Amino acid sequence: MRSADFNIRWNCAETTAQETSLEMYRSICRSRFFDQEVIRAVQDRRITYQVYLSIGQETVSAALASALAGFMLFTQHRSHAYYLAFGGSPEKLRDELLGTPSGTSGGRAGSNCLQCHDERLTMFGHHGLIGENVPQAVGAALGSGKEVLCVMGDGAAEEDYIYPSLGFAVTHKLPVLFICDDNDLSILTKTSTRRSWKISDVAKGIGMPAVNITDDPWTILATAQELQSTLPALINVYSCRMHWHVGIGTDGPPEWDRLSLIEQRLSELGLSTLSRQIRREEQAAMEQLWEK
Ligand SMILES: Cc1ncc(C[n+]2csc(CCOP(=O)(O)OP(=O)(O)O)c2C)c(N)n1
Ligand SMILES: [Mg+2]
């Protein structure tokens, strides 16, 4: 059953280097405060079209970015946090959302089709069909021989074309880490209404290592590091979307608030002073970014 503690590895926070823990926390704060500024920009009508917020789900990308340096990215529509965590420019993302030529796609793609092709990051954006990035990621790994991170949602995991792609990756031992960023929602419909099976069982059935874990960043980091030596592999991460599928509204509190759980854990590790400083720095930086 999904929960804040599901398959959590409690010892990982202690065994992770303090600077790695703080780097992940910085990344989480950056995404959180970036998207909070996006909310303000929508309220002020500086942004007048659809936004897909990462708020609540930031730990997944933050932990993966610590584990998977240099991976090529294939993500889907909810990707602000992935773009930022893997080294994308906050200025270019802001400009994309404002529709200006200095944005990631010249201001013409918007929130749900982020891409980046520079020396820091190769990231291919969503085109409209959920799950389409799975066959694309597999093809890119085959063609380039490079390591690839492929992120789908729990809704996208139900699209038919992903299964032959997972099978092809297993057969050809392609270096792809598949992530199902599982917020338990496809737009408004919960997973239990849509299906009776788990994507991790499907992956295991075709011979791919696969696990289900909660969105504790230390657990994600350790799991991703371990699975790197047995790619292809799949991790289903239980995360919580805090805003509507699209736009800035909310439907009440999330199932759990990972950010405050992390802050408690950092305090237990004796890192509360440093983490408070990081939080202040990132909040100020994101506010300044959007004031310009
Ligand atoms: C092939 C296809 N079917 C349906 C849609 C409509 N659609 C857009 S987003 C979405 C839900 C996606 O849910 P999930 O993959 O879990 O991602 P999340 O929004 O939860 O991050 C759907 C059904 C689509 N874009 N493409
Ligand atoms: Mg979902």
Domain module tally? 1
Radius of gyration: 18 Å
Q: Number of helical segments?
A: 12
The biggest sheet amounts to:
7 strands, mixed
Helicity level: 40-55%
Highest-level CATH class: Alpha Beta
Strand content: 5-15%
Q: Which spans have pLDDT < 50 for at least 5 consecutive residues?
A: none
The averaged pLDDT comes out at 97
The CATH topology assignment is: Rossmann fold
CATH homologous superfamily descriptor: Thiamin diphosphate (ThDP)-binding fold, Pyr/PP domains
- Give me the CATH architecture, please: 3-Layer(aba) Sandwich
Short description:
The chain is of the alpha/beta class. It has helices at residues 12-15, 18-43, 58-67, 80-85, 90-97, 133-144, 162-171, 191-194, 199-205, 217-227, 258-268, 272-291; strands at residues 72-74, 116-117, 122-124, 148-153, 176-182, 185-186, 189-190, 210-214, 233-238. The mean pLDDT is 97.
Describe the structure.
This protein is 44% helix and 12% strand. It has 292 residues and is of the alpha/beta class. It has one domain (12-291): Rossmann fold. The strands form 2 sheets. Strands 2-3-1-4-5-9-8 form a 7-stranded mixed beta sheet, sandwiched between helices. The radius of gyration is 18 Å and the shape is globular. The chain binds thiamine diphosphate (TPP) and magnesium ion. Magnesium ion is lined by residues 153-155, 183, 185-186.
